[in-house]
Write a structure and sequence with these properties.
alpha+beta; Tetrahydropterin Synthase, Chain A
Amino acid sequence: MADEAAAATEQGDEEKAPKKGLGIKMLGIMAALMIAEGAGVYFLVSMTAGSNSSAMSIEGTEDQERQQTKEVLLIEDRFQNVSSGTVWLWDTSIYLQIRNKNAERVEKIMLQREAEIKEGVAKIFRRAEDRHLRDDPGLDTIVRQLTAYLNDVFGTDKDELPLIERIIIPKCTGINAGG
């Protein structure tokens, strides 16, 4: 009997004891508070942040855009070189990196002096030593010669800076045409 009385008191204690863990109401209240806090932070940040249009009106952005560069194709052709005793054709693409503010002027000169520019570039390739074309992975000598020649052709801008920022040669593949 004593065992039955002890078991009955244990069952009564379990029913009277509060449940462990959070109740559904408490979880709902906490979730609502977190959502309200998130919304409050969002509205606070959106109210204090400047608009996109005000960022564009900052002085100097137009000038900065004009100073950015773009690439323009100058020539894509094959140039002959016979300096090694055999005929080599160099399949080449040459790009000019120019500032946006000089783009119109450079393109106008390219149209007006197209044949002269092709002839000058072809002369550089014909006169180049074989080692400058085959053994120089960055084509540094050719790029220097092209830069000097093209700076003479295109000239400088009103700030006395060259119109051409950089010469880019992404493709210069040698083809042995002599057999």
